[in-house]
Amino acid sequence: MSISNELWKNNHDLAQACLEHPFIRGIADGTLEPQKFAYYVGQDAFFLESFARAYSIAAAKAPDFSVFTTFHNLASGVLVELQLHQSYACKWNVDLQVQQLGNATRRYTDFLLATAWGGDIGLIAAAMSPCMALYAFLGKELAGDGIPNHQYADWIRTYSSSDFQPLTEQLASLLDSYGINTATVASAYRYAMLCELNFFQAAWESVSSEQ
Hints:
By secondary structure, the chain is mainly α. The protein has one domain (3-210): Heme Oxygenase, Chain A. The protein is 80% helix and 0% strand.
């Protein structure tokens, strides 16, 4: 079994917890409070900016031009995702300029950037893979019976699309090529998956916590 598949299997409990989280269930059936999704959009914009930076740092550490190109392609995919968030921001009346970084977002982005600066290619890929693998999993699961016709359909459409899956596979391939399943790598992967779950929980609690 490849390291990417092994790490995913070992952390599938957290992926399943994300799928069953009320925030994701609300996206699935369209019942999520708009204010909670608006908070998520603002925080995810912060996150994606750091994710793109982490890819760029990883590219600078690439052992050859092929890996360098792959990381830059992945960063370009994040920039496309950020454009989607700009459209979300307009639709949901989110002013990305006045959004404040939440604690869950800060913990996640600090971890990613610290890993990108201090880790090798394998460790960086391990820290970044959970996000990509998880969103591909969520998109596929939520679109399993067809993409519903409600206000969050675009979110489901994006992460279940044939355009997103290759990006996930590219990062998994880098993890398989350069990662070693050490305790450090396993810990980084699981911590990132926990950060994903905490990210959804923070969005779920955002309305009540600000009232």
